[in-house]
Amino acid sequence: MLGARASRLLLNASHELRGAGAPLLLVLAGTPELEDTLRSAKASHWERGHKIPLGRLDAESAPSALLEPLKKHSASMTEDALDIAMRETLGYPFFLQLFGRHLVEAMNEARSGQADKAVTERAAKAFHPDQGDFYKSRRSELRIIGGTLPAAAAWGAIRGFGEGASCDLVLAAMEPHCDDVHDIWHRLQRSGMLWEKAEGVEAGIPSLLDSTVRSAGPSADAAYQAGFAIGREWAQWSAASAGAE
User: Fold this and answer.
1) Rounded distance, CA 141 to CA 208, Å?
2) Given Cys at both, which of 5, 110, 178, 227 links 153, Cβ 3.0 to 4.6 Å?
3) Residues 104 and 162 grouped into a single domain
């Protein structure tokens, strides 16, 4: 496991190699906590690295996550089967991984090298309990950290603003619902609930946040509505500012 000591050792080794004129490419991959781990080494060198955040896959990449592994085994999916898979997985990498496992199992049961609509619907049926367990675990984590209402407010703000919601907006929406907004913000990021990209903050799994708002009762709905109103207000302000320019 990479910790502060290991990251310092890696950093020292990279300095020595580059000082000797040797080319060096260091690639690190991990969970959203990786950045905080590297920062604990107190070395600005890590800040200068090129970061590739993992979020929901786009409309081009998500199908490839299922089709390419199948292709390696001379298997395929029909278009209507792929539509079902995309609707179920929402471009979320973990869901694609889970769904892919159930899809292969369903294809094996059908003794078919092609996943058609019927096979994929069987895979979806097997996938739903896993998805439900995942949602339940994430909602439990939110309750433990006191993040249910802030998450609902953040989701409302993102929806109210539309594409390109800023970190400042999301923090403003969350703040009335928690004691330490920055701590909750980082926790929501590390859990994959919220992703901050160059173009703005987006929900990691929109359907999970929808289910959180629905299951947590009136208080969560009120937090969502308050966040939505703030998002709308910021969107109107942003449009007026752009028009003034």
Assistant:
1) 12
2) 227
3) no
Pairing of strands 194-197, 200-203: antiparallel
Q: What is the pLDDT of residues 207-237, one digit of tens each?
A: 889 988 998 899 999 999 999 999 999 999 9
Q: What is the CATH number of the domain that holds 135?
A: 1.10.8
- CA dist 42 and 27 (Å) reads 19
Nearest to 70 by CA among 29, 116, 124: 116
End-to-end CA distance of the chain: 50
Going by pLDDT thresholds of 50, 70 and 90, the confidence category of residue 5 is: confident
Q: Note whether residue 55 is domain-resident.
A: no
Q: How far apart are CA 125 and CA 73, in angstroms?
A: 24
- Domains in the chain, number: 3
Please state, in angstroms and rounded to a whole number, the distance separating the CA atoms of residues 164 and 157: 11
Q: Give the separation between CA 23 and CA 17, rounded to whole angstroms.
A: 7
Tokens, residue 71:
């292709």
Q: Where are the beta strands (DSSP E) in the chain?
A: 76-77, 114-115, 194-197, 200-203
Domain membership flag for residue 53: no
Asked whether residue 54 is assigned to any structural domain, the reply reads no
Its domain, for residue 21, covers: 4-48
How far, CA to CA in Å, does 27 sit from each of 16, 45, 57? 17, 14, 21
Q: The pTM is what?
A: 0.72
